[in-house]
């Protein structure tokens, strides 16, 4: 960061005095890198694509200039902000309220599990901005309760997560309701192909902004890994407890992939006297709101959460993130560990690893792009000795590990090499699962898929495998379904070879 950048203040943007006063009350005087880049372009009404990680200050980068640009006298919404989750919608709403409170900016939030009638009533009042999730916003548009004629600004926040959660189609439907001469702002930590396509199709000569300085590699985050290969659930949770006792963080988020695991971890920690809360999509909205409020206030130290529920978490003092399981996408891993090491503070990310965990490779691939991470080569004949590992651990942790060297025992092999076949098999599985997930997204609505905690894809079954599954005389129906599913897979492969029209097979 150069000296010129350090000297920039929000007052340099000629903002309204009420906004400057509100920023001062919030303790915000100097813009972050993404705010320095985005704010001037929004004030000049340019379309923008901003790529920056969680914790970079992106919400304020569009909230500040939009609070400046909206006309208070106009009663109808002038800004629409789309977020992938309810929690993030509430976070954005609160930030807009804080920044625009002296200018009396009104920003109702639209999301599920809340009274539609109550939201409709809010929209009938003076509303300068609207924040919402795609599904609920689309409901209001289809029912005519959200007026779009005055909307001059659209924000698509965390566009990559919109894609991963299957909301892109709904976003495109929403776009059809909006004026064509609007300003569009798109924010994303990563840029999947579908997000790039969305930008190319619906944005006008956008300014592209990438904040390299906010990448995780530049943060003070220490990555650590614990092996839990072959552990039962109780043993895995006991390992988690020991990790928490050793590190004793001031504030910590523990991520699990499924609601049931969140409940199991929460119950075990609570019974052992840990100050903790839980957060997942199966909870009522008022419960989730209450948990987040208490966590931000510091009323408990450990939050156990799923990824969907945790997307809107914005707590500055999180010193530890624990991956009880690795997520299924590299991008999700980035978002998880991006919760710690903020604002120049030290952070730690700890992962519990099984040797061949489903998403291990995807997460490690991302880690290997970051600085300070050792890369281990599988199956090349390039090995790493125990002593090398010991010395590396000593150096990384600034400590001394006592050890003794003994003669090789009778029967011990002198050396061995890694077998990469399992990694290759995993890579093939990941490709197959991606195909299946694309097919599911094309068939089922996002509202249904978002209620599914886990999708398990089996390798292609041969006739003998299917017969073995249905060998028991009580499994004839399962056998029939298995054959039908195999027909479906074969039909899809045949279609891909010949580009034939889609055929639909219903398994009942």
Enumerate the strands of the largest sheet in spatial order, edge to edge or round the barrel: 3-4-2-5-6-1-7
The CATH topology of the largest domain comes to Rossmann fold
Overall geometry: globular
Number of helices: 21
Query: Whole-number average pLDDT?
Result: 78
Estimate nothing, just give the exact number of structural domains: 4
> What would you call the structural class?
alpha/beta
Give the tally of β-strands.
13
- CATH hierarchy: architecture of the largest domain: 3-Layer(aba) Sandwich
Relevant CATH superfamily of the largest domain: P-loop containing nucleotide triphosphate hydrolases
**Helix percentage range:** 40-55%
Gyration radius (Cα, Å) is 26 Å
CATH class (first level) name of the largest domain: Alpha Beta
Q: What's the main sheet like? A: 7 strands, parallel
Poorly predicted parts: 213-218, 361-365, 370-382, 500-508
What proportion strand? 5-15%
What do you see in this structure?
The chain is α/β, with parallel strands linked by helices and 508 residues long. The chain has four domains: 3-214, 3-Layer(aba) Sandwich (Rossmann fold), CATH 3.40.50.300; 216-373, P-loop containing nucleotide triphosphate hydrolases (Rossmann fold, 3-Layer(aba) Sandwich); 375-406 and 415-419, no CATH class; 423-498, no CATH class. Helices cover 44% and strands 11% of the residues. The protein is built from 21 helices and 13 strands. The strands form two sheets. A seven-stranded parallel beta sheet has the order 3-4-2-5-6-1-7. A six-stranded parallel beta sheet has the order 8-13-12-9-11-10, with helices on both faces. The longest helix is centred in the last third of the chain and has 23 residues, at 421-443.
